[in-house]
Amino acid sequence: MKTVRVVAAVICDSMEEKNRIFATARGYGEFKGQWEFPGGKIEEGETPQQALVREIHEELEAEIDVGERIDTIEYDYPTFHLSMDCYWARVKAGDLVLKEAEAARWLSKDTLDSVKWLPADLTIIEKIREAM
Known about the structure:
The protein is an alpha+beta fold. It is built from 3 helices and 7 strands; from the N terminus they run E-E-E-E-H-E-E-E-H-H. Helix content is 18%, strand content 40%. It is globular, with a radius of gyration of 14 Å. The termini are far apart.
């Protein structure tokens, strides 16, 4: 089974407080409309952190500071294995502009379950909830 390596940003309102996190709904593909943390594939020669800065700039037109790694999710989808490094992040400059996603929300600890998460992203929600 093919492995796809990606990174995801759990963008929070404050690295210290983490009252709200930013989530996006996929605007395309098999999982269109389901919610995820923004990010994407790591290109050759990039560190996960560099890939995350590039992906967020491409997808959301914002500059971010990448914080500590929350976890690495290993998840088997029907046609590929996903290995996703998830990092805390915060917006350093710019506004979050949706270039690929169909919707976005800032979610609090109490509203994390109000969206239908992609299966892989769902596996890290409890760890995020504990940090909020």
